[in-house]
Design brief:
- This protein is α/β, with parallel strands linked by helices and 328 residues long.
- It is built from 11 helices and 10 strands.
- Strands 1, 2, 3, 4, 5, 6, 7, 8, 9 and 10 form a 10-stranded mixed beta sheet that branches.
- β1, α2 and β2 form a beta-alpha-beta unit.
- The longest helix has 25 residues.
- The protein starts with a helix and ends in a 13-residue tail after the last helix.
- Keywords: Signal.
Length: 328
C-alpha cells in the first residue's frame, strides 16, 4: 500500500509538473501588464471595466487596471493601435470606427480590433431634477442646457441627433458623468442625457442627494427613434432606481469588450474564461453584468471575434461562424 501510494504521488507530481510546464509555455507572448479603456468616472463603463481589470489581474497574475478615457470611440482607437490591450465599446461606434468614421482619426479603418465578450445593453435615458418640472421629452424647454457625457462618447455621438429627431432644441454640453451630475444638481444644466448601463452610478448618487425624474420615451417617440437609429426598444426595469415605480421606456445599443487582434490566443482565451465562467461574481462588479452571458454572444454582428474568445465561446455553447473570427 505504501509503495502504491508513493507511485501515485509521484505520478501526480509528474502530471502537475507537466501541467505547469504547459501553462508556462502557454503564456508565451502574454503582456506583462495591461489596461482596459473604459470611459469617464461616474459612468458604468468605468465601474465595469475597472472591476474586470482587477478580476483578471487576481485570477491570471497579470498586472492590470481600468483607464479613464473618452469612451467607445477613443477605446476603439486605443485598442486598434495597441496603446490599450483591452477596451469597452458600443457596437454603433465600433461600426463607424471600422468604416473609417471615427472622429479621432477620420479616414482610418480601425480593423485591428476584435470582440472578446458581450457586456450589456446601453439604454439611452434622460434625467432631470424633479424641481425642473420636466416630466417628459416634450417638456424640455427651448434652448435647454443638456449634458451628453464626454465628447465622442456613445451619448455624445447619438443622443443629440436623437433629440433633434424628436424636435428638441438645446445647448450641447460635454463632460464626465460625475461632473455633469454635479452641474445638474447645482442648476447649471437642465437635463442629462445618459447612454450607459443601468443603474448609472451618477444617477444613483443624485437620487440619494435630491429628487429626480427619470424621463421615458413615449411609445411614439420610441418607435420613431428605433426607425431612425441603430438601436432597439428597451425597458429600464422599475427596480433599477428608487425613483421608478414602473418600467421606463427607452432605447438601447449593445456593448462588447474588445481586444487588440494581435494579442496571443491563449491570453484572450483565459481572459474570456475569467469573465464568463462566474456570472454571479461579475454581477458583484456591476448589476448590468447580468447580461454578460454566452447566450448574448450572437448580439455581435459588427466586430470580428478574437480567436481566443471564439474558441472559448464555441467550447461553451455558442456557435460563432468561422467567417466571423479574425484570420478565419
Amino acid at each position: 500500500m505504501k509503495t502504491s501510494h508513493l507511485v501515485c504521488t509521484a505520478a501526480a507530481a509528474a502530471l502537475a509538473l507537466g501541467a505547469g510546464a504547459a501553462a508556462a509555455q502557454d503564456r508565451s507572448g502574454w503582456p506583462s501588464s495591461f489596461t482596459i479603456g473604459t470611459a469617464s468616472q461616474g459612468g458604468t463603463f468605468f465601474v465595469y471595466g475597472s472591476g474586470v481589470a482587477n478580476l483578471i489581474s487576481e485570477e491570471l497574475g497579470v498586472s492590470g487596471a481600468g483607464e479613464v478615457t473618452g469612451g467607445p470611440m477613443q477605446n476603439m482607437a486605443l485598442v486598434h493601435t495597441g496603446e490599450a490591450a483591452l477596451g469597452l465599446t458600443t457596437l454603433g461606434p465600433a461600426r463607424e470606427s471600422m468604416e473609417g468614421n471615427n472622429p479621432i482619426a477620420p479616414g482610418l479603418a480601425m480593423d485591428n480590433v476584435c470582440a472578446v465578450f458581450p457586456m450589456y445593453e446601453t439604454p439611452f435615458s434622460i434625467t432631470a431634477l424633479s424641481s425642473s418640472g420636466i416630466e417628459q421629452i416634450s417638456d424640455i424647454p427651448d434652448g435647454a442646457r443638456i449634458g451628453f457625457g464626454p465628447a465622442g462618447s456613445t451619448s455624445d455621438t447619438y443622443f443629440p441627433a436623437m433629440l433633434e429627431e424628436l424636435g428638441v432644441n438645446f445647448e450641447r454640453r460635454n463632460g464626465g458623468w460625475d461632473d455633469l451630475g454635479g452641474q445638474l444638481q447645482d442648476g447649471l444644466l437642465d437635463v442629462i442625457a445618459f447612454a450607459a448601463g443601468v443603474p448609472v452610478p451618477a444617477v444613483s448618487q443624485l437620487e440619494v442627494q435630491t429628487d429626480v425624474n427619470i424621463i421615458e420615451f413615449t411609445e411614439e417617440e420610441q418607435a420613431q427613434i428605433v426607425d431612425a437609429f441603430p438601436v432597439a426598444a428597451f425597458d429600464i426595469p422599475a427596480s433599477t432606481y428608487t425613483t421608478l415605480e414602473e418600467p421606463a421606456r427607452a432605447v438601447s445599443m449593445w456593448n462588447f469588450a474588445i481586444a487588440n487582434c494581435d494579442l496571443p490566443e491563449s491570453f484572450i482565451y483565459e481572459v474570456t474564461n475569467v469573465v464568463m465562467s462566474d456570472n454571479e461574481r461579475m454581477m458583484g462588479i456591476h448589476r448590468s453584468a447580468e447580461a454578460t452571458t454566452v447566450e448574448n454572444a450572437d448580439k455581435n454582428t459588427v466586430l470580428p471575434w478574437h480567436p481566443g474568445a471564439a474558441r472559448w465561446f464555441n467550447e461553451n455553447g455558442a456557435s460563432i461562424p468561422q467567417d466571423m473570427i479574425h484570420g478565419g
